[in-house]
What does this fold into?
Amino acid sequence: MKAKPHTEGKEYISFGTYGSEIDWNNPDRILPLNYDQAQGKRIFYQQCVWCHADTTPAGPSNRSNVTPDPPLMNDGAVLNAVSDDSLRKIIALGGSAVGKSAMMPPYGRSLSQDEIDAVVAYIRVISVSADKNPPAKTN
Amino acid sequence: MSAKQVRRGNSWLPYALIAGNALLLALVFWQATTDWQALRRYSQGPVRFASLQPGTLAWRQPVLPAEYAEGSCGACHHEDMPQTPRLNHGRQLIVKFNCIGCHRLQDSERPAMLGPDLTNVGTKVSREWIYKWLKEPRTLTDANGTVTVAGVSTDPRMPKFRLSEIELRALSAYLSAQHAKPVAPYRFSPHVVTVAAKGGDPADQGQIRFNQMFCVTCHALAVDRGGETTIIGGDIGPELTKVGSKVKPEWLVAWLRNPEGYLEHTRMPQYQWSDQDLYEVTQFILKKLTDPDLLKDVPQMESPSEDEIQLGQRLFVEKGCAECHAIRGVQPRSNFAPDLSALGMAAGPYLVQVKLPRKESNALHFVPSNVKQLDISVSKIPKFMISYIQAKVTDPTSVTPQAHMPQFHLSQPDLEDLTMALLSMSGPPIAGTAQNSLIIERPHKEFHPEGQVGQLYQRYKCYVCHTFKGYGGTLAPDLSYEGSRSRREWLAQFLRNPQTLRPTLTVRMPHFNMSEEDATTIANYLSATLQKPNLDPAAVNEKEFTDQMAAQGKQLFETKYACQSCHTIGSSGGYVGPSLNNAGNWLTPAWIEAWLRNPQDLIPGTIEPRQSIGEDEIKEITAYLLTLKQTPAEPNAAVAATAGGGSRHWLHVWVYLSLPVRTSRPGPAGAGPGIIAFL
It folds into this structure.
């Protein structure tokens, strides 16, 4: 028998997000991320950003050194046509396994299935096509 | 009165006796088994249950709001986790801003030096400069009062104290009188001066030397880039843009010759200067890194009077200066500021499930949060712990006008990360419980080699940037297994001339002007001692590799595995990984093979993905990489090439990755220093 502290009979739901990302197509918009997406963002900025973005945390991008050009992760027109399963397969098995460029290495042995899923979840957040999300009007 | 009468008339009495006794017994039992401490803690005051969010009561909800969720992870995980980049960054900020100087904090020990030792500060700077610095501890300011780069304000670690004119005069008098150990002036021979003058302005020569030695690896400079002020350089040492107007010339020469002579625990390495270089670099610092307007609003001050010095000494202790800065003979006060080692508890009690003997299996564990020591109860702002912490850090007078705490300048993301790290403070581990095993100890074990190598290790401060077996800085590659990775001859040569072999990567290693003997001693030590266990250097025989294998390997490298997307060979390829132009001279065959099998086994967290490369293919790729050799360039040629600005963007790359920077887009949530080591 332990003294149970008196509690109120009302539940509170915590609010907020696990992180946020600035919309690559529209810098005025901030996209909230749920837990998986936030983890995906972390992995993306460790592993993928070097070739799949025009600017990287380090400044210059490695994208220009790779042929053919890797798709930008905010290029919704390209990425929204690819299913989640295909994305997972390309990440896990690499470009050569799906008939694309071998320049995309396989990550199946260095990232876990959960981590790959998280990256896909994050890609879906930032790969909004530009027309759905027009840039802010400037005066 | 007969017995029958008693029974009939007072029949309630025995029942009452029984009931009373039972009640008494129940009370005793309840008292014996009740956790009175817990009850008391729960019913104490409004502050204990300071809400996390406006309008909610935190104690019904022992989790932090989602944006601070990483703080909850930190309640039990005291080690850095990859999943909590913001928490890790917040903990780095706690160290950076020396919170431990005044507050007790979980998992933090007082380092040997927090702020600089001021025992001899009178030999270094003038009274006017001290006055200016204490009034506004910022040297770089723009129209808005502060220079920010990529959202990070460039303020130094020293916070701003709100000091009156009298206090400023007293403290500057006291500090400028600190010159117990006078600086012996170093006289350059006239020959050095005339030779330097022949080659043009010595200050210009010094600037070239300053760049070649990569002082900016640790020291930042503000530069003008297309009308916009940006900061280039690291933050291990102080920012130097206006240092020429700060330090006394004779002190600067003495410092550069032997930093430990002035500061015992300095992180500045001792360079092996020639008189020529020393003269030119000091000329550059004293003539070019200056600002004539720096001290223009400082009033004229006479030599300090005895009264001012006395008052200054008292203020030095009272204001808490002594908590971060040592002065010989001055004792800091203990428990200067509230104990924050369980601050997270004050933001809502964590329910810690502790495995105890069966009787007490559902124990709630309460940690005293010391919240009473905080002035949250008198604050004018809403009493929510998160907003309280943030107000307290950025402007303590907004909480209580008479606050002692100085004012820190942080960007909003930094402030949030710091708050998160403070909210993770859950008190010391509970003795004798299972919680001890939840907490993974940080690797505190210091690494110091013995003997001659130990002296060199101290002189060049290798551990400031490199990690050795879990000890040291994270700016540069982990050298725990360097003996397995690099060949001894390569190491010796690299130490003498760090730029030659991997220009894109190594712009950041300073040029120590190391003697051949020193370089050989260190290289011998690295290859003999810092070996990866289970990696047999003799397992791979270089002689077995044939030209045909190498040709096959080239094919695999370029076509099947497309390694050139990240690695440069010749002049083409990517720069995510290191250039492999000199792989044959640099890497050992055993390391290359082990790396191709499983990179993460050798360097955990490296971004090269592990692939399924067949054993034959591994041999062939290794054979190919070993054919890649470069004759080392002449030291001067290499220096000229890097100084010419060819690697400037790489310097920038390095700066970016090494600082805990957050850009506006794309925003790396603490793309921490971990990455650079493997780039």
User: Anything to note?
Assistant: Chain B touches chain A through 64 residues (CB under 8 Å). The first strand of chain B starts at residue 148 and ends at 149. The radius of gyration of chain B is 31 Å.
